[in-house]
Design brief:
mainly alpha; 5 strands
Length: about 220
């Protein structure tokens, strides 16, 4: 029931299902023989699923199919280790917005890879955007609402800089409105370009009516 071209991992679900039905049994046998830990198994599985998902996008981190396969919220650390997120995590304050605009992931991924050929762009992305993204995740996992609010608004502002071409034009006004008012902010899902967007706001009523009407319940 995941819509295609919406940034919520439809290809990841297909890959997870194919792996479950055709590869799982053999890999589990091999894993038992090797005596690998759960973390090592996660890392190997993520790499295998990434190779499979490349069929759809030309490039894949393997994260979406891994989450679909395990049916768990996962934390992927800077050292590449993977663990299951604590059970207390909550999605309060997050709202899924339907842009009602399907898109294809592969050309957006290709565009991003082209941008990364610019050394200055890649440097800023590595040294500004990625650490801020990690700060958002840490604040969320620690349930530090003040830090999460501050860092996710900063992340939204940086997405407007780094990924403006991945934001649908009709959302740019609302994107800026949220950052100015500090009542809400927006974030692209997956490769952006359309599909679903993530909104962060204390209450649904803090969102403009245009966005409220597109919240997925």
């Amino acid at each position: 029931n995941i819509p295609l071209g919406y940034g919520l991992g439809s290809s990841g679900t297909v890959v997870a299902a194919v792996y479950r039905d055709f590869c799982e049994k053999n890999d589990k046998k091999n894993g038992e023989k090797s005596g690998k830990t759960e973390t090592e198994d996660f890392a190997m599985l993520k790499n295998k699923l990434a190779q499979m998902e490349c069929f759809f996008h030309g490039a894949s981190s393997g994260i979406d199919p891994l989450i679909c396969y395990t049916k768990q919220a996962l934390v992927i650390h800077a050292d590449k280790t993977i663990e299951i997120a604590a059970a207390h995590t909550s999605l309060d304050g997050f709202w899924l917005i339907d842009t009602q605009k399907p898109r294809k992931t592969e050309p957006l991924v290709a565009h991003f890879k082209q941008l990364c050929l610019d050394k200055d762009y890649l440097h800023e992305l590595t040294n500004a955007y990625i650490p801020l993204n990690e700060l958002c995740i840490a604040a969320y996992l620690k349930r530090n609402s003040d830090l999460l609010h501050q860092s996710i608004f900063e992340l939204s502002a940086l997405q407007l800089v780094f990924f403006k071409n991945m934001i649908p034009d009709f959302l740019l006004t609302y994107w800026n409105e949220g950052l100015t008012s500090q009542k809400f902010c927006l974030k692209i899902c997956g490769a952006g370009g359309g599909g679903f967007m993530l909104a962060f706001a204390k209450n649904k009523t803090d969102l403009p009516l245009f966005l409220q009407e597109r919240v997925v319940h």
